[in-house]
């Protein structure tokens, strides 16, 4: 039975394809108070914590992001091809094999070696902007920090960050509802990233180093664990998947702290709270505002029949602030809450979560230690406020702490 034929299950309707739809909004919280789900123009939205936790691991749901281009009128071409083959959109044995191959490079042990470089990088960027008392936070801190972190991780020259970040953020337009109209730019950026990945693979084959890319290149050559095509698709995903997300999440962190200046002061006084600060930002203000799943067959969940092929969007912030799961859902870095969904969950849980947590929990307390009275110094501009969201520009004014 189709969900539309179930009037007894009262729920709201959310038009999630409307470019002006705001996912972190009262409208969505009101819908959550009405029911654990809402209907959308694509299918369903899951709004409560317990249901999101269960459905992220539900055997009748599989990754649904592959449908995004189709939903936006794009069914073929280089972007579609790449998107259909990225780790995020694979399932079963191919997904498990590729994830197993790249996983060791993301371990906390590997990160320990990189953390001092992340710290030096954050200090360098803060030094460069602090004397002026104002900055454009996204281009002066969030973007170079996120991009250079990925360069450090993948062993790429940090001087190339601008080129890579440019391609990556253009590719990021693909996650917006204007995908179709932006397609020519998106495919050009993808081509740039592919050429860069190809050159990188050839360089490492000729001149192997100690870095992450060398390890993948050698794995691919020695035992054919990963084909060359899979490797270039993976490299483009890692550059893209790590850069924009971290940049946007840092911008959203500043938004959260400006709304809660007392929390900024607390972080400056108690930098040991940085891990929880990152978790709180991601629980209450995640950049990946939903993860998408698709029903592989008809099934019933909590009295609701979900038809095969239904697209299910799981709303991370509505679930992360669900009062049923946490008595005090407000942003509070001194309080521990149940695990957030800012990195998704289940089989596709973010591969880069250790690195993202680590680089953000280095950057945020350093910013708080150096800058105070941080406020907006003009209007910020924004990506659409659903899907993958965050500030495009964020002019800030601040004082430097004595
Ligand atoms: C998956 C968020 C940083 C690589 C995911 C997912 C989310 C996410 C929500 C799951 C999507 C789904 O289930 O549909 C974030 C956020 C980040 C971040 C918010 C930063 C704040 C990174 C970094 C990397 C990375 C630094 C790598 C350099 C990946 C990959 C996947 C993934 C490869 C796919 C995993 C799979 O399908 O098995 N990320 N991510 N991410 N992320 Fe991240």
UniProtKB/TrEMBL annotation:
Keyword Electron transport: no
UniProt cross-references to InterPro entries, sorted A to Z: Cyt_P450, Cyt_P450_B, Cyt_P450_CS, Cyt_P450_sf
Top-level taxon: Bacteria
Cofactor(s) of this protein: heme
Stored SUPFAM superfamilies: Cytochrome P450
Keyword field contains Heme: yes
Keywords attached to this entry: Heme, Iron, Metal-binding, Monooxygenase, Oxidoreductase
UniProt record similarity statement: Belongs to the cytochrome P450 family.
Protein's recorded name: Cytochrome P450
Native organism: Litchfieldella qijiaojingensis
Organism lineage string: Bacteria, Pseudomonadati, Pseudomonadota, Gammaproteobacteria, Oceanospirillales
């Amino acid at each position: 039975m189709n969900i539309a034929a179930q009037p007894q299950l009262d729920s709201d309707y959310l038009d999630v394809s409307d470019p002006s739809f705001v996912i972190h909004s009262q409208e969505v919280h009101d819908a959550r108070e009405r029911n654990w789900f809402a209907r959308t123009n694509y299918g369903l939205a899951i709004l409560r914590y317990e249901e999101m936790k269960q459905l992220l691991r539900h055997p009748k749901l599989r990754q649904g992001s592959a449908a995004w281009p189709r939903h936006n009128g794009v069914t073929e071409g280089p972007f579609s091809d790449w998107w259909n083959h990225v780790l995020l959109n694979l399932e079963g044995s191919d997904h498990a094999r590729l994830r197993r191959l790249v996983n060791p490079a993301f371990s906390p042990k590997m990160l320990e070696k990189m953390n001092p470089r992340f710290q030096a990088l954050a200090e360098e960027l803060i030094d460069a902007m602090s004397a002026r008392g104002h900055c454009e936070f996204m281009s002066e801190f969030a973007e170079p920090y996120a991009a250079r972190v990925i360069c450090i991780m993948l062993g790429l020259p940090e001087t190339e960050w601008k080129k890579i970040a440019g391609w990556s953020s253009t590719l990021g337009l693909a996650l917006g509802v204007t995908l179709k109209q932006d397609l020519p730019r998106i495919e050009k950026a993808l081509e740039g990233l592919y050429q860069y990945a190809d050159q990188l693979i050839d360089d490492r084959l000729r001149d192997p180093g100690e870095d992450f890319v060398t390890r993948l290149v050698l794995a691919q050559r020695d035992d054919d664990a990963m084909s060359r095509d899979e490797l270039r698709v993976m490299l483009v995903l890692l550059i893209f998947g790590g850069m924009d997300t971290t940049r946007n999440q840092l911008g959203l962190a500043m938004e959260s702290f400006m709304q809660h200046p007392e929390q900024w002061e607390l972080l400056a006084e108690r930098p040991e709270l940085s891990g929880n600060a990152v978790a709180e930002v991601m629980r209450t203000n995640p950049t990946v505002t939903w993860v998408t799943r698709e029903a592989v067959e008809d099934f019933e969940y909590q009295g609701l029949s979900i038809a095969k092929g239904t697209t299910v969007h799981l709303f991370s912030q509505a679930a992360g602030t669900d009062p049923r799961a946490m008595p005090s859902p407000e942003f509070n870095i001194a309080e521990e809450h149940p695990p957030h969904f800012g990195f998704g969950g289940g089989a596709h849980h973010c591969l880069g979560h250790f690195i993202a947590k680590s680089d953000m929990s280095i950057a945020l307390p350093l910013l708080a230690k150096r800058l105070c009275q941080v406020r907006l110094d003009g209007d910020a501009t924004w990506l659409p406020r659903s899907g993958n969201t965050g500030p495009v520009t964020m002019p800030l004014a601040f004082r430097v702490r004595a």
